[in-house]
Amino acid sequence: MNEVKNPAALSLISLYEISKLLNSSLNLEKTLREVLNLLSSYMQMRRGLISLMGDGGRLEIMAAAGMSNEAARQGKVRPVHGMAARILSSGMPIVIPNLKDEPDLAGSGEHDDSLDDEKVAYIGVPIKTTEKAFGVMSIERVWDGAGDVNFESDVRFLAMAANLVGHAVHLRQAVAKDREALLEEKHRLQKELTGAKSSGVKGSLPEMIGTSGAMRDVFGEVLQIAASSTTVLLRGESGTGKELIARAIHANSPRKNGPFVKVNCAALSETLLESELFGHEKGSFTGATQERKGRFELADKGTLFLDEIGEISPAFQSKLLRVLQEREFERVGGNKTLKTDVRLICATNRNLEEAVTSGEFRADLYFRINVVPVFVPPLRERRDDIPLLARHFLDRFNDENKRKLVMSDDALENLMSCYFPGNVRELENCIQRVATTTKGDVIKGADLPCQKNLCLSSALWKQSAPMRSLSDAQDHDADFGEEELAATGTDGVEAGLSGDSMPSRNRLVQAMEKTGWVQAKAARLLGLTPRQVGYALKKYNIPIKRI
After folding, report:
1. How many CB atoms sit inside 10 A of residue 312's CB?
2. Tens digits of per-residue pLDDT, 65-77?
3. Most CB contacts within 10 A, which of 110, 154, 289, 490?
């Protein structure tokens, strides 16, 4: 290819290449940096800067050539940056034939690497699409200083390049504004659609958010069991929303006009828990200055929710068992027998079957509370609900803090890829944290703590990622040894169950109960083969029920 020597033709080719660069990517900083690199070869410039007006009305360096963007933003071009401010305010180009002759730029020696006999010229032009400038493009170039030099052609060429940059920036700003408007409209429509779906379902659960198959199954169970007064045991990891489901059961039951009383059994000692549940008489112990009703009395004709039921002591388990069997109790320090009419809903994140086997939990109490089990899936098994939940928590944050934040698509994609060992509670905390620290109106993927190595729970989920649920975490031998494989009469390849595909004990028991303990049906429900289900049953030492 012959070298182009005609200056006019070379200018035209350079402008054409600049226009191609500006249309090649939506990454503005990267594109502007490439434009400066192209100018460095055409105009033999030593340095170049492109600055645009920021939200605060001040110039912000968007791209630099001949030095790093970081060095430029740290103020190592501050004297020349002051010239850019003059260009912005006047809207006119500025040419300085030799920077060393300008007393106002005496402090620029920090970035001056020119030789003693070199002359460095500064040329700066405004970036604008109308009469008002919103940016500055400037270059520094070395010339030999011989004779009279006319910089008019350089100014004219740089002004045309700045004009191209101005239109590209204006177009990107318009696209970003339209995109934010579309995201907000999409969010609004999704909320309306979710509300329409909810209002169109008889006995809907406005307390709950979720459209995934896993949650639809849970909603169906809730609506079915709410009509009775049967004792319910909610199973699932911490943070999955078991209390919300308990409230939904109460709200859709015949007892909805009665009280809903909750107690966290793990937060109280055995003595305090007894007084909290059964109440106490005046003078029954030190500090009991007056009679006090217990939660069983307060929940009469309503629902009593016992959270973390698996944490109560063996001694207190026998006291609770009597109340559940006889529906009567005495206050602490009293001898009067009181009757109670409550619906009991219990919740636990423990493997109660193992606790019963080890003697930590009474078998008779287990059978008394495990009448209708409801398994609440962890968030990683209902990833389709993450966008709905994230937007719900963001809406709540906006209402409380008078903000108008929206989430970008890449932020939602990053959230959907997280493991969330803390489940919905962790997601809510994550949204509140990123919403608090975000300066603009759009939460981007790069704003999330996990993208900045600031997510402390990532250490948990990276360790837990091969495990499907809490019971897997407790039985973290998902990578099976040779003796276990030999005992089952199969090998790892034939079993086809790895840590990722191995169903949790809870899910396996749930599938078996739903299918009447028919392994073939349970296998279809879990997406496994009957042989794999049989292998998992042996692995978890689950006895087969004959119905």
Report:
1. 21
2. 877 666 666 655 5
3. 154
